Amino acid sequence: xxxxxxxxxxxxxxxxxxxSLIACKSGEKEKIRPNVLIILTDDQGWGDLSxxxxxxxxTPNIDKLGVEGISFDKFYVSPVCSPTxxxxxxxxxxxRGGVSGTSAGQERLDLDEVTFAEVxxxxxxxxxxxxxxxNGMQYPYHPNGRGFDEFYGFCSGHWGDYxxxxxxxxxxxxxxxxxxxxxxxxxxMAFIEENQEQPFLVYLPLxxxxxxxxxxxxxxxxxxxxxxxSLVNGxxxxxxxxxxxxxxxxDWNVGRIxxxxxxxxxxxxxxxIYFSDNGxxxxxxxxxxxxxxxxxxxxxxxxxxxxxxxxTISGGExxxxxxxxxxxFPTLIDMLGLAHKxxxxxxxxxxKPLIFKEATNWDDRIIxxxxxxxxxxxxxxxxxxxxxxxxxxxxxxxQKNPVQHQYPEVSAKLIAAxxxxxxxxxxxxxxxxxxxxxxxxxxxxxxxQMPARDGxxxxxxxxxxRFPNDSFFTNWVTLQDSITWEVEVLTAGKYAVELYYTCPxxxxxxxxxxxxxxxxxxxxxTLPHDPLLKGxxxxxVKRMESYVKDFKAMSLGEINLDKGEATLSxxxxxxxxxxxxxxxxxxxxxxx
Length: 592
Hints:
The structure is a single chain. This protein is α+β, with helices and mostly antiparallel strands. The chain contains 11 helices and 29 strands. A hairpin with a 2-residue loop joins β14 and β15. The longest helix has 27 residues, at about 235-265. The radius of gyration is 24 Å and the shape is globular. The protein starts with a helix and ends with a strand.
């Protein structure tokens, strides 16, 4: 099934669901609906807060959310970024929504999945997302196509520069302003200021403390010469210091946005939610739990989770019942008084009875965590790890002493549940196409970006780093070299085309051909632009990801595109120097 057909079916599905199924629950009096602010951090572990006992940093503003709001003590996310985001958005396990990886298009959330942002938007909320999206770049996978009126940030899995980097605003490439986490928070605050008279949803997925480890001196200086307490095996102190400085910067930004809500008299009419997308990105203090980011063990998937609704939710409560990212969607619509029915049932449940102490009985449940062909199961008392070892977590939260022989019935039950769940997920994935082309020119979108991250290089061309998310293509040196993207043009018509490139003076003059199906557009590198690689000067520790450059936009003119699947390719026609150019991005702008 083509993307266009699937997209049309998803639109019909959404219309049928939302036109009749989003409304105030019957019997409730009309009232002003509360605003929603969701702050999601990137690679901040459960232990990266003073609230959870870390002796190495102070996070008073985040801690305050747990003190004046409620804290879910056993809240579970996925081991890595994009799966958690998909589960949060849909209330369903990430494999059901086609999210099987973190790049190469595998991070894209299926178009027939409904997000809570769509539900809120269709019930009168103005919606904005500011930060790292990581569930698809090209519309309709783009956040503007998933329920957000406003988007400012980046759609990739990680970014290469945190100081005034290239970003996008509703699909259009722009330049950021200052340190990225501060900039994202400022844009969210501006959105709140502008929309304070109507119910709003603000989703603030900050990019830190994900690497590269960049943070301004204001937050780093206090850690530079600090002696860390409670070191763990395998810990890199320099990395930890940078991560904790980034967490204290997050705390400062949380303080800013909370102060704004208070100054605008919105504090008592705003539900504020705070959590992280996975465990810590390196070994550091995490309460002694086993595992880190990428692991399905407790330390890789347990996240802080705070919810504050001043004057409505009693502060200071700690909820011990297990919960997870899959619960956010059903909890929100329940708390907001919205009715939502879908052909795709939730895996999560509403936590409202726990939040408001309405639950007289609360059944035990299983929460599944999966990544890299490894699955773990968590119940209230037990964890079954990916190798089949059982742990009694109340007695052994560090997973040191397997107890499957002491609890053979529990072990057998959870192993059977794991087998059934993995079979069900295999069946879900079997229904997905083996490859989904990248969408180009959706009817609702003006801009479509095709980054190097999503392309495939042939010949001598190399990617600037094995991690593709912030990479570019280089070493384009022969006429046999080429770069391709498999695309599906959703709307036929005329498109302006820009390339983001670099090329030294000595190599200008190369000509090349961009082709989409049978349509071609030729170009020539006429202006030199040869900036140095950047990033290292701001890194607190050596990075794994690609260094980046300031790429220049080159206008190629216009091309007519036909609707349907095609190969987008770019190939040199003549190379008078030693190379063609380095290439980061191609942008198509709809003309009609």
